[in-house]
Amino acid sequence: MSVKDKNIIIGISGGIAAYKIPLLVRLLKKAGANVQVLMTPAAHDFVTSVTLSTLSEQAVLTDFIKDDTGLWNNHVSLGQWADLMVFAPVTANTLAKMANGQADNFLLAVYMSAKCPVMIAPAMDLDMYAHPATKANLKKLQSYGYEIIPATEGELASGLTGYGRMEEPENIFDRISTFFTPKNDLTGKKVLVTAGPTYESIDPVRFIGNHSSGKMGIAIAEAAAERGADVVLVSGPTHLQAKHPAIRTVKVQNAAQMYDAVHNEFDNADITIMAAAVADFTPEQTAGQKIKKTGDTMMLSLKPTKDILASLGQKKTGNQILIGFAMETENEKANALKKLRKKNLDFIVLNSLREKNAGFKHDTNRVTILTKSGDIIDYPLKTKKEVAADILDLVNEFQVAE
Ligand code: CTP
Question: Which residue out of 210, 335, 357, 396 is catalytically annotated?
Answer without folding.
Answer: 210
